[in-house]
Amino acid sequence: MADEAVIIELLGYPKGEPIRFTCADGTGIAKGAVLAISDPRTAALSGDEGSFAGIAAEEKTANDGVTNIGVWTKGIFDMTTDTSTPAAGTYVVTDGANKVKAEDAGDELLGDRVGKALETAASGEVIAVAVGVYA
After folding, report:
1. pTM of whole model > 0.70?
2. Helix or strand or coil: residue 69?
3. Residue 6 burial by CB count (10 A; 0-12/13-18/19+): exposed, middle or buried?
């Protein structure tokens, strides 16, 4: 995969407040992948939209027999924007594999809010995002 989130700073105790989610054995998940949540407490790779679960805290190899993954829920991460240009201080949401975009009206109702942009972005730029701090 590409465009995985990169840790700048993990917040909370012990390190970024990771929680465990169920995941599919047949799916490979890269460390830093943006994950969506589904019922029951299952994390999967995010698509164009999806309720944001967090960021993969570890790599998960496809068909390795493992059916759970640690997910960071609080921290500051470098994340890649899509073609939108979120301004510093605005909320960002999931948009495609491992990408974020400026929040549109109604996005917060879908549960796909990732956090707050800490920098203004140009199209496709990597910016710092506060995840789980302001959302």
Report:
1. yes
2. strand
3. middle
